[in-house]
Amino acid sequence: SAQVIDGRACARALKESVAAEIEQLREGGVRTGLATVMVGNGYSSSAYERRLRRLASDLDVTYFPCHLPATISQDDLVSAVGGLNAAADVSGILVLRPLPAHISEAAVFQSIDPVKDIEAVHPENAGRLALGVPRYVPSTAASAFHLLDSWLDSAGEDRAAFYHRSLVLVVGRSNNVGKPAVSLAYDRQAAVESVDEWASRTGNLGRHTRRADVLIVAAGRPGLIGPEHVNDHAVVIDVGINPRPGPGGRDRMVGDVDYEAVAARVRAITPVPGGVGPVTDVWLLRNTAAAARALSARAVDGARSGGNLLLSSL
Ligand code: NAD
């Protein structure tokens, strides 16, 4: 049966390196701050916020949770983001989804300072990722490939050679997970294919997924991938997080993959919970530290060119 790719262990190791980066910034007089913007009261966004609060406190990152009413106008939300753009102690900004229907996600994303845009949702950053020159790699897709890369290292596989001969198949094409995952697979010189709901609707999902050497599933459909959808050498990364009623009336989280049945067949697999999720959270803080560094470099440059302007005007 499959090797289990341990997301919690991977997250712990990554967290240590992020802690060291944040510590080094602090020694240089740079503080790291994370702001989240939550509009209304989504169940999954408040759970995410709780996890980020804990992680920020562990890493000595200042956390600014910004809560806004579901009735807020788009203009007021854009102004609130503008306030965070201007705040010197905020390094990274994450706008939690979903936003209410009367607000255009694109308009809000465009209002984020691209240097503070740690999920790469601003068109400039999304474009850079698609061109293979990312400023920040969005955390969920980054986590999927960080787990893959780490697993390849532990399995003694040469990463470049592995990706070179592999077909990476991504199920799901959302802007925040599926499309970035496709870009990262291209960057690794793998053959890449992506499918969406259409493949399921037309009964073709298995025909595609069975060819995958690496199967990344981000559809948000529990049990979508069963043993009939995989081959025996596949490495399966399950991004899905779906609440299911569990014992005692409490929800438990399941992925998009029928874990037990698929694990019995494939080469390696990530569990849910304990797979992609924990690494995603730490990656966001990694991007926040990178933003803090970029902002301090920008401030130094700004002071320099300000000085030059002053000189040239004399
Ligand atoms: P989304 O709803 O925006 O996009 C889903 C994509 O899957 C779409 O492209 C859709 O066409 C496709 N899809 C839906 N049903 C399908 C089917 N039956 N067959 C094939 N394709 C199908 O969702 P998202 O934001 O990309 O998130 C996907 C999943 O990942 C969700 O379960 C979400 O909770 C989870 N998620 C996990 C993390 C993490 O850190 N682990 C982070 C973000 C999202």
What does this 3D model show about the protein?
The protein is α/β, with parallel strands linked by helices and 314 residues long. It folds into two domains: 14-129, Leucine Dehydrogenase, chain A, domain 1 (Rossmann fold), CATH 3.40.50.10860; 139-276, NAD(P)-binding Rossmann-like Domain (Rossmann fold). The protein has helices spanning 7-27, 43-58, 74-86, 105-110, 123-130, 139-154, 159-164, 178-187, 197-201, 205-209, 259-263, 276-313; strands spanning 3-4, 33-39, 62-68, 92-95, 167-171, 191-195, 214-217, 235-238, 242-245, 251-254, 268-269. The strands form three sheets. A six-stranded parallel β-sheet has the order 1-11-8-7-5-6. The longest helix is centred in the C-terminal third of the chain and has 38 residues, at 276-313. The protein starts with a strand and ends with a helix. The mean pLDDT is 96. Residues 140, 171-174, 176-178, 195-197, 199-200, 205, 218-221, 224, 239-242, 276-277, 280 line the site of nicotinamide-adenine-dinucleotide.
Comma- or semicolon-separated keywords:
binds nicotinamide-adenine-dinucleotide; 15% strand; Rossmann fold; histidine biosynthesis; amino-acid biosynthesis; 314 residues; NAD(P)-bd_dom_sf; single chain; Bifunctional protein FolD; three-stranded parallel β-sheet
